[in-house]
Specification:
By secondary structure, the protein is mainly α. The chain is built from five helices and two strands.
């Protein structure tokens, strides 16, 4: 995780958590597709809603203490407000017996990939802006 004070009050830590979540979710969804024809296999997924709730709490915590500098340059998990957002993916893993259609799995993995790509694009643009500002090419 990025712990630099320069990034602590930006969207970079939020985007980093989103990228980590979408990578984990992609593995779960790909496993569903790979095991689609396996007898008795139950589809699994990571709860987007629970992840978003944890991430929202982490953002609120960061914003609440941003003026105190409590989390600036955090080096331990206890000081990192985003640690709980991705600390235990098992807590947001669920099994879905209701619909195991291949179309729904492909749709879910496509949406997840789009979310992942969006987060990476935004993060890349932010790093380019920072680089331009540092090199005074703005």
């Amino acid at each position: 995780m990025l712990t630099s004070a320069m990034f602590s009050n930006t969207t970079v830590p939020v985007l980093e958590q989103l990228v980590n979540f979408t990578e984990s979710r992609h593995s779960v969804l790909a496993g569903n597709i790979a095991n689609f024809d396996t007898p008795g296999y139950r589809t699994r997924d990571l709860s987007v809603e629970k992840f978003q709730a944890r991430l929202s709490q982490a953002i609120e915590l960061r914003d609440r203490y941003q003026d105190t500098g409590l989390f600036a340059g955090a080096t331990t998990y206890d000081q990192d407000p985003f640690h709980d957002a991705s600390a235990d993916m098992r807590g947001i893993l669920f099994h879905d017996d209701s619909d195991g259609s291949l179309e729904n799995q492909v749709s879910a993995i496509t949406k997840n990939q789009m979310m992942h790509n969006m987060a990476l694009t935004i993060m890349t643009n932010q790093f380019r802006q920072i680089s331009a500002a540092i090199s005074e090419k703005v």
